[in-house]
Specification:
Structural class: mainly alpha
Number of domains: 1
Number of helices: 11
Largest sheet: none
Helix content: over 70%
Oligomer: single chain
Length: 205
């Protein structure tokens, strides 16, 4: 019973539409109709402003962190803790509050991993930053960090089930990015897609 509660609460936390609320509160309108249409921190950053974007980033990460913390507080088995984290990602991507049309889930996934494997996720985030500096490509940087994380977990913790979990969860994020990535690759040279899409206005986030 508590395991089911943890999973449901994880979903409801993840479904909190922080980007949508930021757009409405700051009177910029429906974020789904602005920029790339994604309900995420990067689109808010571009279309509403840097402060709003960073606030949404923090809120989206907090959703993942809280899903894990609440599950642990309930004292559920570890599989249920992992399920609650996955439910937060599902909630972010398909939120019940706004018609099941949500974001892509990178920040919420990062929050889940920060709560589960903080040291390894911090290393992965360092990789993201080191990639972001030369490329200015948030999506590519996040992908490289998430790709490195399973190896860091397996190498430093020796827990292959957990390594598998941190490999599988970002695949959901990747699937949500595929249509945008295909569109970008079809319309621009790969050099322009990889380098500096943020500054050039490429809607890949």
């Amino acid at each position: 019973m508590l395991a089911a509660l943890a999973i449901v609460l994880g979903y409801l936390l993840g479904a909190f539409p922080s980007a949508y609320i930021a757009g409405r509160l700051l009177k910029k309108g429906d974020i789904r109709k602005l920029g790339g249409g994604n309900i995420g921190a990067l689109n808010v950053y571009r279309e509403v402003g840097p402060r709003a974007g960073m606030a949404v980033l923090a809120a989206d990460m907090a959703k993942g962190i809280l899903a894990v913390i609440v599950a642990r507080w309930l004292g559920v088995p570890f599989w249920a803790v992992l399920s609650a984290g996955a439910a937060a990602l599902v909630g972010h991507n398909w939120p019940v509050y706004i018609g099941f049309k949500g974001g892509k889930g990178a920040a919420t996934t990062a929050g889940v991993f920060l709560a589960l494997v903080p040291a390894q996720m911090a290393m992965a985030m360092l990789i993201m930053v080191l990639c972001l500096i030369p490329t200015r490509n948030v999506t590519l940087s996040a992908c490289l960090g998430f790709l490195a994380l399973p190896f860091l977990v397996w190498w430093l913790r020796g827990e292959w089930p957990l390594a598998l979990y941190v490999a599988v969860l970002p695949s959901i994020v990747g699937l949500k990015h595929l249509p945008t990535a295909r569109q970008a690759l079809a319309s621009r040279p790969i050099k322009e897609v990889v380098f500096d899409p943020w500054r050039r206005g490429e809607r890949t986030g």
